[in-house]
Amino acid sequence: MNVIIVEDEFAAGENIKSILKRLEPDIYIIDIFDTVSSTVTWLRSNPAPDLIFMDIQLADGISFTIFECVTVETPIIFTTAYDEYAIRAFEVNSIDYLLKPISIEAVEKALDKFKKLSQTGIQQTIQNLEHFFRPKEYVKRVLVPVHDKIIPIKTEQIAYFYNTNGVNELITKDNKHYSMDKSLDALMESLDPSSFFRANRQFIISKDCIENMTIWFDNRLLINMTMEVPERIYVSKNKAAVFKKWFASV
């Protein structure tokens, strides 16, 4: 069985190589590649291997870019250091994975599974995972109904979203108010989380419109905006650390 390993961590690549040799002495490790570009170059000019071990994150980008550049018809065992949320996506899409640090038992189990996987199943799981890990695109404009028209409001013009008595509003930096059909939960899903923060049940706030914060008596944070707001904006004690990290980020 001919195998290539796509892994940008030297120790991790050597570990997989060592485990494979122990499990299947006749296996041939063709090479270990640490970038998207070197993997694509090799796949374009060489016969397909029998199996590929592939890390998700490589030195020059995410490994799913490989599938946009070259057709891959080889079974793939992905390796990952992603958290539990991402791992559940692997399970839902019925593809095997190895969670770092990689054990011999995990490799043995993955090999057994991939030997039974059909070619159609391989391609489908690649497509599903590519969709899952592709960077999400966030809205640039929010559409708001005004009488018989729909008005686009650029996200950089938005100061905050506010919910009161079940009514949702969008407020711009020049203090214009627009009623919204969408819930704050649905809005937050479409907004860039580097620019907007769900402070509490009433507010989604723009980073650009935060002047400072005050540490409140129960370790909540009082958020002081650059403009008047209909009520005080508090971030709970449990979310305070997350908020400060978000606010300090670029």
Summarize the structure in words:
By secondary structure, the protein is an alpha/beta fold. It contains eight helices and 17 strands. The protein has helices spanning 10-23, 36-45, 66-69, 84-92, 104-115, 119-133, 184-190, 237-248, and strands at residues 2-6, 28-33, 51-55, 57-58, 61-62, 76-80, 97-99, 141-146, 149-154, 158-164, 167-172, 177-180, 196-198, 203-206, 210-215, 221-225, 233-235. Strand 13 (196-198) and strand 14 form a beta hairpin. The mean pLDDT is 85.
Intertermini distance: 47 Å
Tell me about the biggest sheet? 5 strands, parallel
Uncertain regions: pLDDT < 50 for 5+ in a row?
Answer: none
Strand content: 25-35%
SSE pattern: EHEHEEEHEHEHHEEEEEHEEEEEH
Overall geometry comes to: elongated
What is the CA-based Rg, rounded? Answer: 24 Å
Q: Look at the structure and give the mean pLDDT.
A: 85
Order of adjacent strands in the largest pleated sheet: 2-1-3-6-7
Record field, number of beta strands: 17
Tally the helices: what do you get? 8
Helix content: 25-40%
By secondary-structure content and strand pairing, the structural class works out as: alpha/beta
